Amino acid sequence: MTSDQLSPLLLPLALLLVFYLLAIRPARRRQREVARTQASLQPGARVMLTSGLFGDIDTVEPEQVRLTVAPEVTVTVHRQSVAKIVDAEASAEDSPAGTGATAADVGFTSPGAEETPGAEETLGAEDASATDAVQRPSDRPADR
């Protein structure tokens, strides 16, 4: 074969190589990482779901994971919705609630806060509790 016959093949081969390096190889790497994460799920681990919800694993089943997201609040999610396993100490340091930051520090002001000088709300576990606004079926008045 002469170089005139090979030159039309070089561009398509180069494009295939670039496509492999930019698309297929990273996708395979991500797939392996997800498989490793799914295999290492175990009760007691702190995880983050793809929706951004954090919780502690109670039980792991073949298709489902049961998480505790707040005291006495347990949710069942599909196993593939677990995005990553997080370190409990690192997640407490990263969140504004774990640092003792004020609402003004994280850019939040409540209505009327401008009217009251020095009115800063400290974000903490007691303020960030999602269970305050949730009514459980046992807490609701019975329908008649």
Largest beta-sheet characterization: 5 strands, antiparallel
Kindly report how far apart the N and C termini lie. 88 Å
N to C succession of SSEs: HEEEEEHH
The number of helices is 3
Describe it for me?
This protein is an alpha+beta fold and 144 residues long. 33% of the residues lie in helices and 20% in strands. Strands 4-3-2-1-5 form a five-stranded antiparallel β-sheet. Strand 1 (46-49) and strand 2 form a beta hairpin. The longest helix is centred in the N-terminal third of the chain and has 37 residues, at 3-39. It is rod-shaped, with a radius of gyration of 25 Å. Residues 95-106 and 115-131 have low confidence and may be disordered.
